[in-house]
Structure formats: structure tokens, C-alpha cells
Design a protein that fits this description.
Layout (H helix, E strand, L loop, with lengths): L15 E6 L14 H15 L4 E6 L7 H6 L4 H25 L4 E5 L8 E2 L2 H9 L3 E5 L9 H11 L4 E6 L4 E2 L11 E2 L1 E3 H7 L6 H9 L4 E5 L5 H6 L6 E4 L1
Parallel strand pairs: 1-2, 1-6, 2-5, 3-4, 3-5, 6-10, 9-11
Antiparallel strand pairs: 7-8, 10-11
Helix pairs in contact: 1-3, 5-7, 6-7
Length: 246
């Protein structure tokens, strides 16, 4: 093992974190589904942080397979569409579990909707114990309820697991005042308050997730998932990101 992998946990910023990524992050350049090389690349990012001794849990969206709101907009009953979206998150969680365990990282998928043959049901104390045993825990099926996004599920689980921060992996290296993909003059924030995110209607996470994080003083670190080593670097005090907090 390299000296880098032996970095003591005391030298990093957080000891227990939740990584939230979208389902679209897993599809690479495809327009749909899973792109195995991309799944493996993200798993390597998680593995590199796991090697630092950080306890990691994850929430992955399902938009690469099915998005409940889009199904609802096309005439499907909203509750049914949302449940289908939850099942998509389970598929993504299993794919990430397979990639991580292929790298030697013990991983547990825990679903808010019981499906005992493929993953564990959500029991908070059991999930905490997995983290204490240095297993990566992937929370699937959202909150188990329709009308709640995986952003809200991520914030809920991060609070329940006593995480010290949520890491939101995106396509850009932080929070901007406008979309940097369409506006080259967009300004990036090094730090911004929860209230400013809500007031400006910045698309960091949905409003209920931001409010839940604010009410529990849980910081949100927004960074680029496309930057190799970015997740690990931020935990060691390096890299570019935006901190959403008080």
C-alpha cells in the first residue's frame, strides 16, 4: 500500500460523509442506461477516499433509467411513476456495489423498499454498524415514499447516519450564479448560505433538501465528479468546490 493510502484519518476534513450523485452520472456519453467504464471510474473515486479511512455512504439517483417526474408529465400517475424511479435507483445501487466489491471494497445496498433477496431493508442502527465496520453503504429506493426526490433522501440519510457533510458530485466544479455551460461569464461561489441558495433558486439540490440540511446545520460540498481525484482531494483540503452552509 502506498504512503498516500496510509494518510491518517486525523489529516482529512471529514470522517463520515454521504456522496450524492445523479443517475445520469453513470451513463457516461450514452443517452440512457449504465456505462460500465463510467461506473468503474466513479467506484475508483470512492475507493480512493475509502482508503483514507473515511466512512462513506452513497445515494444515487435513477434518472439514467427512469425519472418519475418525466413519467408523470407524460400522463402516468405520479405515485406509480415515482415508485418506478425508486426501482431505478436500486438498479444503479447494485451496479455500483458490484463495481466496488470488484475492487475489494465491502459494500452494502440498503433499500427503503424491502426486497430481501437482493439487498437489505433500511434499519438505521444496522446501517450505522456497517459504516463503523468500514463498509460502504449505498441507500437505494429514496425515502420509500413518492413525491420525495433522491436529494431529499440523501439529506435525510446523511442526518440519520450523523454524517459530517454531503458531497454532491456534479458536472461542474461548484455552485454558479448562472449556468456556466451557457454563460461563460458565470461566477462561481467559494461558499454560499442555504438561504441564498433558496432565495436565488440555484439548482444545487431541491428546496426541501436544502431546508433539511439548513435545519440540521449539515454542510453541502458541491464539486465536479468529472475531475479525477476530486473527491479525495477535497477531503484533504485541496481542489475546487463550493461549500453550502451557514
Amino acid at each position: 500500500m502506498s504512503n498516500d493510502a496510509q494518510t491518517p484519518v486525523q489529516s482529512i476534513s471529514y470522517r463520515r460523509v454521504l456522496l450524492k450523485i445523479s443517475g445520469e452520472a453513470l451513463m457516461g456519453d450514452q443517452g440512457y442506461g449504465l456505462h460500465p467504464p463510467t461506473v468503474n471510474r466513479i467506484a475508483q473515486e470512492v475507493q480512493s477516499v475509502h482508503e483514507l479511512g473515511v466512512e462513506i455512504c452513497m445515494v444515487i439517483g435513477g434518472g439514467n433509467i427512469f425519472r418519475g417526474l418525466q413519467g408523470s408529465a407524460q400522463g402516468m400517475e405520479r405515485t406509480t411513476a415515482d415508485y418506478m424511479g425508486m426501482l431505478a435507483t436500486v438498479m444503479n445501487a447494485l451496479a455500483m456495489q458490484s463495481a466496488l466489491e470488484g475492487m475489494g471494497v465491502f459494500t452494502r445496498v440498503i433499500s427503503a423498499i424491502p426486497m430481501d433477496q437482493i439487498c437489505e431493508p433500511y434499519i438505521r442502527r444496522r446501517a450505522v454498524r456497517h459504516l463503523e465496520k468500514k463498509r460502504v453503504v449505498i441507500f437505494a429506493a429514496g425515502t420509500g415514499n413518492p413525491y420525495f426526490t433522491t436529494d431529499t433522501a440523501a439529506t435525510l440519510r446523511a442526518n440519520e447516519m450523523a454524517c459530517e457533510a454531503i458531497f454532491k458530485g456534479t458536472k461542474v466544479d461548484g455552485v454558479y450564479d448562472t449556468d456556466p455551460k451557457t454563460n461563460p461569464d458565470a461566477q462561481r461561489f467559494d461558499a454560499i448560505s442555504y438561504d441564498d441558495v433558496l432565495r436565488r433558486n440555484l439548482k444545487v439540490m431541491d428546496a426541501s433538501a436544502i431546508a433539511l440540511a439548513r435545519d440540521n446545520n449539515l454542510p453541502i460540498i458541491v464539486f465536479s465528479l468529472d475531475e479525477p481525484g476530486g473527491f479525495r482531494g477535497i477531503l484533504r483540503g485541496e481542489g475546487t468546490y463550493t461549500r453550502v452552509g451557514t
